[in-house]
Every structure is written in C-alpha cells, then in structure tokens.
Amino acid sequence: MGVIGKRVAYYPGCSLEGAARSYDVSTKIVAKELGLELDYLEDYNCCGAMESKNVTFMGTMLLNARNMSLARKQGHSVIVAPCNGCSFSLQRAEYFLETDRAVFDKVNSLLREGGVDALDQIPHTYHILEWFYHEAGPQKVREKTRKPLRGLKVANYYGCLYTRPHFYARTYAHAGGQDEEARPRKRDTADDDEHPYYMNALLEAAGATNVEFEPMHTQCCGGPHSLSDEMVSEKFVMMILQTAKRNGADIIATECPLCHASLEMYRHRLMLKGVPDVDVPAAYFTQLLGLAFGYSAGDVKLKDNLSDPLPVLKRLGLA
Amino acid sequence: MAIHERSLVEPERILRKERLVVDGVDVSGDWNLIIMPRVINDYDVDFGKDVLSQPEGKTINQCYQCSYCTASCPVHNYWDERYNPRHFIYLARLGMIDELQKRADVMWRCVSCHKCTHRCPKGVLVEEVLKAILKVMAKRGIIEEYPSKKFDKFFTESVLEYGRIEDGELLFGWIEKQGYNVVKDPILKKPIPFVGETPEWLKDLVMKPIKSMNIGFLVLNAKHMLFHPKTKNWSKFKQVLRKVMQEEGALH
Q1: pLDDT tens per residue across span A149-186
Q2: Testing the interface with B: which of A44, A46, A107, A186 to mutate, by most B Cβ within 10 A?
Q3: How far is B90 from chain A, CA to nearest CA, in Å?
Q4: Domains plus CATH for chain B?
Q5: B185: nearest Cα among B199, B172, B200
C-alpha cells in the first residue's frame, strides 16, 4: 500500500465531462470517502485516444506530452486517468519518450515552440482502479461500506487496455532499452496481465458477489471501431453480454467510459433486434462503490446510465 | 526462398480431375490433385524497409512467425479468418504487394485490443506494426480509404480544432458521414438529434434520458453540443501540431 501517492494529478478525459459525467461524479465521491485527493489537471487536452495514433505519430506524442507537462507544472509526478483509452495513450507516450531519446528531444523542443514547458521528468500514468487498489485497497473499502451490496451478482468487465499491453504498463530506464540493466521491469502496481482482479476485490469488499466472467472480462467491445465497424462491435458486445447473463450476473461493472458507452449502445440495438440474453445493465464500478458507501442513486447519477440499472438495484434493495 | 503457405496458393492453381491416368497408371481418387507451380519474382524489398522506418514499425524484424498474435486475435477468431496478423507481417517483410492488396478489405479491421502486442514472445509491437503496414500501403496507394481511417481522421481533426472532443458531435457527425440526412438548426449549424433520418435505434436511445426526465444530463450534453468544449491555451499549440502533422503528411 501507498506506492503511488495519496495526492495525484487527475486527468478525467473528454468523455467524463460530457456523456460519462456519472463516472466523474462517482469517482470523486469514492476518492473522497477513501481519503484520497484528486488534483484536477487544468486546461488539459484530448489524449488522441485510439484514433489519432493511426493518423499521426508525433502529433499524438505531442498531445500527451502537453498533458504530462501540465501535470509537472502542477507539481505532480503521477497522473491518474479513469479511462482505459486515456491511461493507455499516456502510457504509450511514456513508453516511446522513455525508450527513444530522439523522440524525447524532438517533443521537448516542439513543446517549447507551442508555449508549454518542456518535460523535466516523465510522469507515470496509472489507471484509477490501480490507484484505488493500492492507496486504499479492499480493507479500507470494507471499513467505509455502510450499505453492503448484498445479493448483487457482478460481472467485472475490464476491457482491453487496462492490462494490455504489459510493455506500456512497465517502467523503463532511460537508456534506449539496449543494455541488460535498462530492461523493463513490471510495475509493482500493475494488475495481473491475463487475470485482472482489482475490481473484483474492491467490489467483493463492498459486499457484492463476483460471477465467473473469464475470458470475456478482457474481451474487446469493438473499441475504436464502435462507430466505424458496427457489425464486428455488435458481435463482440453480444458475446460479452450473453456470457454475463448466462453466468448469472445482475449487472456489469465497467471502468472505462468508452467500453461503457459501447456496451450500452449495442445492448440497446441488440435488444431491439430481439437477441436473447443481452439485457444485463452496466454501471461504473465507482457508482456501485458509491452506493455501498451510503450515497443515493441520485448522488452517483445512476439515471445517466442508458442501460438503466435502477430496477435491478431497487429489486435487491440497494438503491 | 521462403516458407510457402497454403494461403499463397491461388484457387485457380489447384487442379482436380475426375479421372487421371499417368504413365498408364490410374491415379484417380486422392492422388488426382495437382497444384500448379507459382513463381513469384516481383518482391518489393523496399516495402519492409519502409515499414521499418516508421516509428511504429521498428520492431517488425523481431517477428519469428510463431502466430501467437493470430491465435489471440478476436477479429481472427470471432469475425473473419482471413484477418491474420502473422501473415500480414510475413507478407510485408517479403514485400509481396499483390498479396497484401488482395487482403486490403480485411486489413483495416484491427480493433486495437492489443492482445497480440501483449502476448508476443519476441517483443514485436504487433498492433503498431500492423498500423505502420497500413500507413505504408496507403502512402503507396495500395489500399483505398476504409471506414476506420475516415473515422480516425474525423476524430483527429476535431482534436486539432478544439483540443477536446465532444461525444454528440462525433456521433452525429459520423452518422452524417454515413449518408444519413442529419437535420441542423439554421443558426449554429448544429445537429438536432430527434428529427431527420437518424437510425431508429439511435433516436430511441436519445429519447431515454428525456423519458426519465434526466434534466441535468440533457442540459449538460445540449450545452456541449451547442458550445464545443475547448482547451483554453490552444491556438499556439495548435499551430505546432498542424505543422507536425503536415510534415508527416497526415493533413491534406
């Protein structure tokens, strides 16, 4: 415990200030309850997500380096992002900046040109789930739980980029990765690569029951192709939802606004088409933790979820 | 010169005869299948080098064709068997342009789930390498515009313009690009979600927060759709970004 730091720079990302505001609100509630402090990253820009990197390499590096520079200006060496896409993008930039001196120097000179401070040090990025697990952990969640999620069967959906690829979630020494000393070592804080369990542990501590969800817990939801390749995304989401339902889940817990939006959107389409066993609603894990900490459904903005998890939670007497 | 693969044998080269007699011996049955030889001498050796010179493609030569990437790939396993990352790397390194071109219709289907990169025992950044191959193919005009590229560009332009993206703009902008007739208000030229030709499921989805009287959510999103959220100190940075993208040939 206590590897990352109690006070960190908070990079919410574009989604959390729009359609996924429920995730933002509930994240702040959970952080406050667990005694952790989020320092909002002022005037941040988009990380480029999974799209910009296919268009421009250096541009995407710059977008992320600007955010890193802002974090350094606010005196942080750790950034926490609640979105898989954002944390991936920042970690990817971290990887290329640390392993390639030429990229690092070029990015720094371009940052100065663009009126932003150059990077004196590359801040590390963590997913917010890792931060909660390491800085508070199941023990603290258990202490804070006033209204246990008794009887709620949860399928924990981690999505792709939370643990993958392990390259980006590891620390690099600044030597171009050539000699043996500078080889990457796994971060102490990274979740298990193939069998992530942090969300399971936190929700279990809050009183919920986890259902078997492998291997769909890290199966892709269509991700960056959610809009551009509808048939593939629809099939992937169908597999995820049906596995959850058939394994007895009442609700799917998510930790990424993009996965969440994709699940909700295609769930709706699949239900209109009359596909069986796809009616499992989705909620952010922070919303569920918020409920367990004694907050009301309105406080964690459960109404914002288009898949409408309220009836399920009401039936179990949790909301 | 190289390992030959079943997928490199074109269907018209496989000959099956009903009855076949060779040197007076009847070989009808299992032995009557003949594969006509195929000679390939138009390898484009520069193709692999071009991929290698991309910042994303640096690790391509570490590949030893174990196929762990393909075995992990959800697109290969659940959608289309022709999507085969290992094979694409093989073709790119050999420089078999025409074979790559034949697969151009599936090559863009990567959903960036990074299972391949994660599991590669040789440290190839498979997902990045595949994108580098696509980039080089696009530069050489071997592959035409594909849906995900159009979306990537659309997304990146929005980031470049405002510094941030907005969900409603992306969704309705993309639907408009699909050929739907999205109705816009006359003053601000912003899409109106409930009228026009938007797909039924989407209209239905947009109606949900209205039916549940979720005022806060509606007001916030309407505000964002009308007044695009922006990064404040963006103009100077935007110029640098535009310059960098122009150097890379990402803008046209």
Answers
A1: 999 999 999 998 998 887 676 655 443 444 444 445 55
A2: A46
A3: 21
A4: 6-35 (no CATH), 45-139 (1.10.1060.10), 147-248 (no CATH)
A5: B172
